[in-house]
From TrEMBL:
GO cellular component entries: endoplasmic reticulum lumen
Family, as annotated: Belongs to the protein disulfide isomerase family.
Name under which the protein is recorded: protein disulfide-isomerase
Taxonomic classification: Eukaryota, Metazoa, Ecdysozoa, Arthropoda, Hexapoda
EC number, as in UniProt: 5.3.4.1
EC supergroup of this enzyme: isomerase
Chief site of localization: endoplasmic reticulum
Domain Thioredoxin: 208-336
Record keywords: Disulfide bond, Endoplasmic reticulum, Isomerase, Redox-active center, Repeat, Signal
GO biological process, one term: response to endoplasmic reticulum stress
Catalytic function, reaction form: Catalyzes the rearrangement of -S-S- bonds in proteins
Domain of life the protein comes from: Eukaryota
């Protein structure tokens, strides 16, 4: 209602989105609908007060104000909406604009940051050390401006995301400087190996953008002997053992500590024996110690997939029973070519004497 109220609202350490309206308009109606939908996540305000409208020099518009603790000389402290009077467009604009050039990524909002993205991990702490936190964030912002069309950027507290550091082979961050980790559009992982500096960061982003970097793969060593009836896949030989093997393939993604996986082991070994003369590969992979490539998704153990030899880019999750006969019947029915030893129903074929 007053300029003081308005300044108090936009002076907080969180994003605020304000609608400024002299009268009822289509934009105001759509803004209020968007605000109603997003109010759990976003702070909204609306003003029709002449003094507030005069201060903002806006009579029918929407402005997103950056969190005070994230304001920087490297980007504008506010962004004015320039789209149509559409709830969907307003929501989309808020979504794209909300975190700014370099967002503060936390465990609560991490889903907002989608690949391709670049994250700087260090001692981010806006409560105890906002100045030190922004010291590094400003250096990241300085470079991020030039790459904002290529990647989204964020800073994250290294202690809060230790599990992500582990996924990239780091037990800890060995320096006070930011550790830079990235994912490209295909969700491949990349590490900036040089110590952080503005120059090194810029070079890393250029190389990442131009496809000059080798992705990081968490992988066990390739087995010395892989001649058994059940093939062992690791991240480094995944394409050879599964994608490019020219065979229908049934894969078990397991974890060594998983009880259900241990119970499945003798059945899986027996299945491998039964299929060793067929045009079918039975494979297992320790998904807790190897990166699993897309399109496979492993959220629990064991996770089983069928990858037909001509459809390796679209494998199918196996949801059937886990007894030996269940697997045999499934393979017999799903195999690209009919099995030598079983009919399509999974019955053993009679051999001529």
């Amino acid at each position: 209602k007053t300029v003081e109220d308005f300044e108090l609202f936009i002076g907080k350490d969180e994003v605020g989105v304000v609608g400024f309206f002299e009268k009822e308009t289509d934009l105001k109606g759509e803004f209020l609908k968007a605000a109603d939908k997003l109010r759990e996540k976003v702070r909204f305000g609306v003003s029709t007060a002449a003094a507030v409208l005069e201060k903002q020099k806006l009579k029918d518009g929407i402005v997103l104000f950056r969190a005070k603790n994230l304001q920087s000389k490297f980007e504008d402290n506010s962004v004015t909406y320039s789209g149509s009077a559409s709830k969907a467009d307003i929501e989309s604009w808020i979504d794209k604009t909300f975190h700014g050039l370099v967002g503060h990524r936390t465990s609560e909002n991490k889903a907002d940051f989608k690949a391709p993205y670049v994250v700087a991990y260090y001692a981010v702490d806006y409560v105890k050390n906002p100045k030190g936190t922004n010291y590094w964030r400003n250096r990241i912002l300085k470079v991020a401006r030039e790459f904002s069309k290529d990647f989204s950027f964020a800073v994250s507290a290294k202690d809060e995301f230790q599990h992500e550091l582990n996924e990239h082979g780091f037990d800890y961050v060995p320096t006070d400087k930011p550790l830079i980790l990235a994912r490209d559009a295909g969700n491949k992982k990349f590490i900036m190996k040089d110590d952080f500096s503005v120059e090194n960061f810029e070079k890393f982003l250029n190389d990442l953008k131009n496809g000059k970097l080798e992705p990081y793969l968490k992988s066990e060593p390739i087995p010395d002997d892989n001649s058994g009836p059940v093939k062992v896949a690791v991240a480094k030989n995944f394409d050879e053992i599964i994608t490019d093997n020219g065979k229908d393939t049934l894969i078990e993604f397991y974890a060594p500590w998983c009880g259900h996986c241990k119970k499945l082991t003798p059945i899986w070994d027996e299945l491998g024996e039964k299929m060793k003369n067929e045009d079918v590969e039975i494979v297992k992979m320790d998904a807790s110690n190897n990166d699993v490539p897309g399109p496979y998704e492993v959220r629990g153990f064991p996770t089983l997939y069928w990858a037909a030899k001509d459809s390796k880019s679209s494998p199918v999750r196996y949801e059937g029973g886990r007894e030996l006969n269940d697997f045999v019947k499934y393979i017999a029915k799903s195999a690209t070519s009919e099995l030598k030893g079983y009919d399509r129903k999974g019955n053993p074929k009679k051999t001529e004497l």
